[in-house]
C-alpha cells in the first residue's frame, strides 16, 4: 500500500495524530485486502482544504480518509460522538471538531441559529488558517445507492473562510470532492479506492455593500448555488445510481468489458487494480447514461439481454470471470500446481502462525460477531454494522491481547506455574524462564497481531488457490453449456466495447472534464 506523504512545505502533524493515523492505517490494511489512492496530486500545496465525500459506510468512511489523505485532517462530527467512551477520546486527540446541530439546541429559533453560526465560524477560521477538514455534507451515514440531500453547512463554512482569507490576505481554501468506492465496505478483506477529484471552482462571492440585508441575501444565494454544485459533484464522484441493482449491473458489465479489452491486447485476461475497476465503472456509467438519454430503445435491449445473462449465471452459481478465464484445455499440470500452492499455504498456517493467530484473534472475533448479531436483531443498518465491527475491534482486540499476554507471562515466569517447572527441568528450555518479564511482555504483545497479519496473508494465498481449484471442478461439469454461456457473454461484451469506442468517455486522452455541478453523462460525445 502506497500512503501519500505529508506536504514538505507544511508543519508536520503532531505525534498524537501520527500515532492515531498509523493505527487507522493498520486497521485499514487489515480490513481491506487492497486500498488504492488515486490523484492525490490534486491536493494544493497552499491554503486550507475542505474534503467532501458521500457517507455510505459509517465509521469506515472517516477512518479510510484519515488513513489515506496527507497532512493533518480535522473531522467534523456530531457532538454526541465525543461522549462515547474511547471513541470520544480518540476523536479529541485527532483534532476532530464537534458540531451541535440546531435541532439539538434547546430554546427558540434565534438561539439555535446564533449557536450554529458561531460553530461554523469557528470551523471556518480553522480552514482559513490553512487547516484540512473532512466533511460529509449529507449530514448522516446511509445505505442508499445515491447521494442524499446535501446540507448547506459546507457552503457556509467555505463562504466564511473565503471572506476571512480575503480580509487577511491569505490563500483562499480549496473545496475537493473525494470519491469513496468499496467492493463491499462491510465485509472483511474486500477492496477500497479513494479518488481525489480536482478542486471545485466556486462562483465569486457577492460584493459587500452598505445594506446588511442585501449582503445577507447575496450570501444565501451563493450558499444555495454552491450547495447544489456540491450535491452534483458528490453524485459524480461517487458514481451515484438510482438503485444498487443498477450499480451491480454496471460493475458486472464493466468486468466483461475489461476481459474483452484484455483479450484484444493479446495479454490474456488480467485482474485490474480496484482503482482501474472504478475508472472502468465510471466510463460505463457515463456512456450508459448518455445513450439512455439519446437512444433509450437501444439501451433497453442491451440491458434486457445483459440482465438475463447475469441472472442465468447467478442460477448456476457462476461469476462472469468464471466464463472469461476458462481455458480452452483443462490440463492436469495447472490443477496440480494450484493444489500444491494451497497445501503450501495451509501447511504454514497450521504451524506457529495459525495457533498464535487463533489464540490472539478468535475470542475477540467471536465477541465481535455476538455484538454484530445483536445489532442485526435490533435492525441496525448496514452502515451501522460496519461501524460496530470496526469500533468493537478497536476495543476488544487490544484488551484481549493484554489479557493473554499477562496469562502467558504468568505461565512462563510465575513461581507456581507448572509450565515454568516443566521448562526448568530441561537444560535448554530453562533459559526461557530467565528472560526478563518486560522483554517477554513486549514480545508477546506484538506476537499476537503479527501472527494475525501473517495468517491473513497465508489465508489469502490459500483462498485464491482454493477458488481456482473449485473453479476447475466447475469447469469439468459437462452439464453446464459452457460454449453457449461464453458466446453470449462475448457477444454482450463486444456490443458494450463497440459502444464505448464510439464515444469519448472519462479516461480517454480527448476527454474533457465537465463543469462543476455537471454529470459526466452531460459531456459525453460521439466520435
What does this structure look like?
- The protein is α/β, with parallel strands linked by helices and 527 residues long.
- The chain has three domains: 15-238, Glycerol-3-phosphate (1)-acyltransferase; 244-330 and 483-526, no CATH class; 332-475, no CATH class.
- The protein contains 15 helices and nine strands.
- The strands form two sheets. A seven-stranded mixed sheet has the order 1-7-6-2-5-3-4, sandwiched between helices. Strands 8-9 form a two-stranded antiparallel ribbon.
- Helix 7 crosses helix 8.
- The chain is flat and about 90 Å long.
- The mean pLDDT is 86.
Number of helices: 15
How many separate structural domains?
3
Q: Looking at CATH, which topology of the largest domain would you report?
A: Glycerol-3-phosphate (1)-acyltransferase
Q: How can the largest sheet be summarized?
A: 7 strands, mixed
**On the 0-100 scale, what is the average pLDDT?**
86
β-strand number? 9
- Beta content comes to 5-15%
Assembly form of the protein: single chain
Stretches where pLDDT falls below 50 for ≥5 residues? none
The side-by-side strand order for the widest beta sheet comes to 1-7-6-2-5-3-4
- Large-scale geometry: flat
CATH architecture of the largest domain: 3-Layer(aba) Sandwich
CATH evolutionary superfamily of the largest domain: Glycerol-3-phosphate (1)-acyltransferase
Distance between the termini: 38 Å
Regarding CATH, which class of the largest domain? Alpha Beta
